[in-house]
Amino acid sequence: MRSRMTVALGLAFAALIIVAGAKWAMAAKSCGVKSPPATPHRRKAAESVPPLPLPATPLRRTEKKRPPAPPALVGKLEYGKIVWATDENGRRYSYRDWTTDPLDIINLMKLTNR
């Protein structure tokens, strides 16, 4: 009798942990509102200090430039239907048609590089 009660209590505790973990996982997906991106620190030539009087040696201006964009890395995510073909010896072979939309990568790059 006591062992059945211990097993039932253990199962109830495990179910409670599973339910609490599922609720925590659901809450973890919602990260809230995104904070606005920080303004980039870019200086233009006209936004520095006013010029010094003539006998003084002007200091060198350091301007922050726009950082270079990283190269684009693209991969084909979905292949087309299976295509059957016959070689010169009469043997049949199959391959996945990946040219279902030949301009999809070019259009993706145009869309992302706007």
Shape category: flat
Please give the radius of gyration in angstroms: 32 Å
| N-to-C CA distance | 72 Å
Q: Approximately what portion of the residues adopt beta-strand conformation?
A: 5-15%
What is the β-strand count?
2
Low-confidence stretches: none
Count of separate DSSP helical elements: 2
> Sheet with the most strands?
2 strands, antiparallel
Strand arrangement in the largest pleated sheet: 1-2
Helix content: 25-40%
Class from helix and strand fractions: alpha+beta
The average pLDDT is 71
List the helices and strands in order: HEEH
Note down, in words, how this protein is organized.
With 114 residues, the protein is of the alpha+beta class. Among the domains are: 1-30; 74-114, no CATH class. It is 32% helix and 9% strand. A hairpin with a 5-residue loop joins β1 (82-86) and β2 (92-96). The termini are far apart. The relative contact order is 0.08. The mean pLDDT is 71.
Compile the SSE list and pairings.
Layout: H1 2-29, E1 82-86, E2 92-96, H2 104-112
Antiparallel strand pairs: 1-2
Keywords:
two-stranded antiparallel sheet, alpha+beta, 114 residues
Provide a concise account of the structure shown:
This protein is of the alpha+beta class and 114 residues long. Helix content is 32%, strand content 9%.
